[in-house]
Write a structure and sequence with these properties.
The structure is a single chain. This protein has about 270 residues and is of the alpha/beta class. It is built from nine helices and nine strands. It has a seven-stranded parallel β-sheet, sandwiched between helices. Helix 1 packs across helix 6 and helix 7 crosses helix 8. The longest helix is centred in the middle third of the chain and has 29 residues. The relative contact order is 0.13.
Length: about 270
């Protein structure tokens, strides 16, 4: 995949991994549409990299249609899609404690947003026999996020969707990749800045972005910015009962550390 002169949509690009991806792509000569729920954040990053800002809620199918139309109006065609927008709130009292509305929002943003955008972009990509679809999922999509079942379940679905797209459209010249980082210094984990003091294993959004683009250059489907996540994935597959027992122990430790009082705080420990 040639980056220089290509075009891309990056969602959730107003901060964190999305902003890092937008910057890394622009540094390689890519024209970027910067999409974010927060219009001020989208505008700031777009101004910084010479991109096009777009404010939209990608759990709304209509906003996805408008986003793609805005990118095509600005660039003529879209060569790459980076579906990065997401959220995690934790659970007040276990997997069943969040509302149906919360689960639906997770599904719409983590799975359907990628599907709906790909549905719009794929016909032209297939006609050109060239295109890149990237879903920034999570290691939760191959392992589990303690204290957030909705996040884990929908990230698993995101990985599965990407796998199906890769199987179906590889023959059409479409490269599909899914990114599965572990712990990243973003607001999702309570970091105000990637420069904040971080424990070992927590990497910066820039590191995720560079690993992602390197994985695309190498034509890889599964991209693990944390290599240990791939090891854990293999261990889970080899002996799932043993892996679950280990996760149960980890869960008890995490809730003890977080006092079990604030579900959002759990993310700071895992």
């Amino acid at each position: 995949m040639r980056f220089d002169g290509a075009t891309a949509i990056v969602t959730g690009a107003g901060q964190g991994i999305g902003a890092a991806l937008a910057r890394a792509l622009a540094a390689r000569g890519v024209y970027v549409l910067v999409c974010d729920l927060n219009g001020d954040h989208a505008g700031r990053i777009a101004d910084e990299i010479g991109g096009v800002p777009y404010q939209g809620d990608l759990s709304d199918p209509g906003d996805i249609v408008k986003m793609v139309a805005a990118a095509e109006a600005a660039f003529g065609q879209v060569d790459m899609l980076f579906s990065n927008a997401g959220f995690a709130l934790g659970e007040p009292d276990g997997p069943t404690s969040r509302s149906d509305a919360h689960w639906q929002k997770s599904w719409d943003l983590h799975v359907m947003a990628h599907l709906r955008a790909a549905r719009l972009l794929l016909p032209k990509m297939v006609a050109r026999r060239s295109g890149v679809l990237v879903n920034v999922a999570s290691a939760a999509g191959v392992l589990s996020q303690i204290g957030d079942a909705a996040y884990s379940a929908t990230k698993h679905a995101a990985v599965s969707l990407a796998q199906s797209l890769a199987i179906e459209h590889g023959k059409d010249g479409i490269q599909v990749s899914v990114v599965c980082p572990l712990y990243v210094a973003t607001t999702l984990l309570g970091y105000d800045s990637p420069d904040d003091l971080r424990p070992e294993g927590v990497i910066t959004p820039d590191a995720v972005a560079e690993a992602t683009l390197r994985g695309i250059e190498e034509g890889r489907f599964m991209i693990f910015p944390h290599p240990e996540a791939q090891t854990y994935f293999a261990q889970r597959a080899a002996d799932t009962d043993r892996w679950i027992a280990g996760m149960q122990r980890l869960r008890d430790h995490v809730f003890e550390q977080a006092d079990g009082s604030d579900p959002a705080s759990i993310h700071k420990f895992i």
